[in-house]
Every structure is written in C-alpha cells, then in structure tokens.
Amino acid sequence: MLAENCFVVDTSIISLLVGDMRLPLLKRMLLVMRIARFLALSLTIALVGSVAAQQPERRVKLPENFDNTGASFVFSRDVFGELLSGDRPAVLSQKATAPAMVASGGGMSGGPAGGAPAAGGAAASGGNDWSFISAETIQDEVKKLNLEISPIAMNIREFKGGGYAVCRRNFTELAMLFEIINESSQDVRWKESSLGARDAFWKTADVCKVGTDQSFAAVKQRSTDLDDMVRGSSPSFNEGDADATWEVIADRPPLMQRLDDAFEKKVKKWVASESEFRANKAEILHEAEIIAAIGYAMKQEGFDYYDDDDYVGFCDQMHNAALDMVKAVKNDDPALAREAGGAMAAACSDCHGNYR
Q: DSSP 3-state assignment of 104?
C-alpha cells in the first residue's frame, strides 16, 4: 500500500514524451529508460523500509536459571552506604605509623639492645650513637643538597622531566640527616628546628614519587625553607612528631641510590690509586661518613628487614668499612682505604644478592 501511494506516475508525461514526434526517437527512448530506472530504485527503497518497520524487535533470550535479584547489588548507587558494613577503610597509600619506642629526649629508638650505646662514643638522647659523623659533614651535606634542589625547584619542566626523582632522593636524605641532628649529642646547626624540618622534608620526599604540579609546589616551598636555613634564617615549621619512626621518615630505595652515588661514582675510583687517594682525601672523608650514617640508619627499627640478622650484618659490614675508610684518610693510609673499598663492594654485592 505504501508503494502504491508514494509512486503514482503521471502517464500523461510519459505519453507526451513518447508521442512527441518532434524529439528524436533515440532521445525519447533514453528518457523513458531513465524514468524507469528511477521508479524501480524508489520502489525497492520503499519496500525495504516497509519490511524493516514491520519487523518485530529481537532480544536475546535470558537463561532459564537467570536470577535478577542480584542486579541491585551490581548496580548499587552507593556501595559504601548501602552494601558494606563498618567504617570506610583508610587510604591505602598513606604511610602507616608504627608504635614507636621514644626516649625521654625525643627522637627514635632502635639502637643496640637495651639502649646501650655502640662502641666509640656516648649515645644521644634517641638511644643511638651518631658521633662517627661530624657536625661539619652533616652541615656540608645539607648545603650540597640545597644546591642540587634549588635549580630543579625553579624549573617545572626539569622537575617533571626527571628532577622529581632527584628531589625524592635528596629530601629523603635530608629527613635522615635532620633526625641525626635531633638525636646527636653534638652541637650541630638547626638542632632547635630539627624535628619540624625533618617531618617537612620526609613529607616532601613522599609526594615526589611522581612529577605533578602539586609535588612541584611542595618542592618549591621546601626548597625556599631549606635555602633560608642554610643562609641563617629560621623558617616556621609545624611542630615535629616526637613519636615518628624510621618507617615513616625515610624510604630505603632513595637512600640506596645515595649509597650507590657515594661509592660507585666517587669513592671507588678515589681509592683505586695512591695518587687519587691523596688528591681527594677531603671528599673521601665526607662520603665515607655519609655511607657510615646510611648503613647505620637502615638497620634501625622500622626499616624493612631490621629484624633479619643477615640484613643487619650487611648493614654493619657497610658501616664498619666506611669507618675504616675514615680511619684511612685520617692516618693517610691508601692501602687501608683500598681494603675498606673492597669491603664496601662486597657488602653491596652480597646484600643485593639476597635482598631486592
């Protein structure tokens, strides 16, 4: 019916074209063929559309054992409000704070059993003996880290292009150094603000796992604070957490990167020959004390494997080799320096072979 209503042809037009003898016969035949093709195409389209419109909608048949009672669970509007019991879990990416063993003077525990000082000096208020690293080395290292961070904190393109990893390593080391300042019995600069600065620096290191606008803003602020401290000003920090543990303050991977930089890129080549040793004695002393500090810190409670005797043994091996290196510099003994360098290399190799 649709085709009949849509395509009623005025036969008078065709008759006129066919019967008009003034037109050449060939031209009249071509016109008739064109009209016929048009009518055939139009009729085909109309028939297809009519059949499609009359075709019923086909739907997949549900399984015989389908149970739609669970649909409301799958498509719940508010999973936490409607379906789960209890409090919503905390964000898993946040660092957990383990119970701390805090000494009376603040700072963290984790030294020798019973809080006894290690051989070579009196223990500081935190229960650890940091007398092997001098105030001069700590202060010089803080200044060096400031110089490395400053240009990155002024260039967001450099920060996002990989500088954020440098900032993570350096702010992690700064957090370690300021905890050492807090615990040390020595007179080191910035002692009064050490806890607040320590917490500010580890938090900045934590956000530098990625290079974003937010982490760049944090680095820029802390870089300004650090530069002010180095220049003698006293930035305002929030009150530091006296109950903080190494688990929160310092991640091991950035400290391992600093160890690699100190030994593989510096000390290793400086002790390879007597001439290199004597030309770089001041630098060797500085790096050896930093290595000793990292080796000592990484066996404290809160770090991974701190309760593993083998792991603690490797930390002690690294720490003691670094102290031998310090002794070699002070005694002008290049042979002892080479021997200590070999012990450091062995500690690194053995530890990496067992812990990844």
A: coil
Q: What is the pTM of this model?
A: 0.66
Residue ranges of the alpha helices (H) in 240-298? 246-249, 252-262, 268-270, 274-279, 281-297
Residues 233 and 292 in one domain: no
CB count, 10 Å around CB of 218? Answer: 20
Take residue 282 and report the two structure tokens written for it.
């001041």
Residue 76 lies in a domain: no
Inside any domain, residue 336: yes
Token reading at 177: 């150094």
Same domain, residue pair 138 and 200: yes
In tens, the pLDDT along 282-304 reads 999 999 999 999 999 999 998 88
pLDDT digits (tens, 9 = 90+) for 186-228: 999 999 999 999 999 999 999 999 999 999 999 999 999 999 9
Residue 351 falls inside a structural domain:
yes
Q: Is 5 exposed, middle or buried (0-12, 13-18, 19+ CB in 10 A)?
A: exposed
Distance in angstroms (rounded) separating the CA atoms of residues 111 and 257: 23
Domain, as residue range, for 214: 134-250
- Is residue 355 assigned to a domain? yes
Structural domains of the chain, count? 3
**What CATH number does residue 269 fall under?**
1.20.120
Alpha-carbon span 283 to 267, nearest angstrom: 8
User: Can you tell me the distance from the alpha carbon of 344 to that of 322, in angstroms, rounded to the nearest whole number?
Assistant: 7
Q: Is the dihedral of CA 104, 236, 300, 317 positive or negative?
A: negative
Asked if residue 167 and residue 262 are part of one domain, the reply reads no
CA-closest candidate to residue 238, choices 188, 202, 185: 202
On whether the CB atoms of residues 355 and 328 are closer than 8 A, the answer is: no
